Amino acid sequence: MVAASVSPSWALEPTYGHFNWSSSSDVYFTKQAELTPAQCTTGIEQEPLTEMKYDDLPVGRLFCVRNRENGGVVIGRVLEQGNGSTGAVKVSLSYYRNDA
Question: What angle do CA 100, 42, 93 make, to 5 degrees?
């Protein structure tokens, strides 16, 4: 599991065939080449996901996780597509704090 800290404001857990995320977060993914925190927020408001399967996340796909309480956003890029048998997946993550 990847988390922001010991008591995380967000968490993303790879499992067999899909990601799980904390109940206080929302998730969105895009087929676009770029994804900003503002685009993430708009995407979540318009098309929030209820599941994020590895089959929907090929190499290069961008996704984001937003914490509902503090507005923090994590943007991820798939580096190696998830393996449904082992649960292994490789992603790059960037965290954006909401200081407003």
Answer: 75
